[in-house]
Write a structure and sequence with these properties.
Elements: H1 9-21, H2 25-38, H3 43-50, H4 54-72, H5 89-99, H6 104-115, H7 121-130
Helix pairs in contact: 1-2, 2-3, 2-4, 3-4
Length: 140
Amino acid sequence: MSYKIKLLAVELSELKAKQQTEKSVKIFQRLQCILMVDQGLKKKNIADFLDVTTNTITTWIKIYNQGGLNLLTQLHYDDRRQIQLDIYKDAIKEYVKTELPSTIAQILNWLEEEHLFITEHSWLYRYMKKNSIFLIKRRD
């Protein structure tokens, strides 16, 4: 599957019109992504500019290629699975706030011991970043 996009003049015009009226930051980012891909920018540069991952850029391009702007501007997908960490989100926030863990590994151990939930380091890291749960670095 090609991850390049070359917009026709009418598609470019429609995209820019949607950008001007869009109120959702998430959808605006997606529209900006497609515009930047059309301009030939690299996915890494686009991801850095929009503060998302290159995987997200790839996903948005795939969505656009499958269904155009209509599908790209939908935020909810029928086939999307529920994130299992959502069940523990408030507990993780409280644990980080009260216990002040210094590593993701400590949170992984706590999740396993207290909630019998096992996940990968990278999943928990991305989940915490996405949900603005940050570890506080202590000065020793």
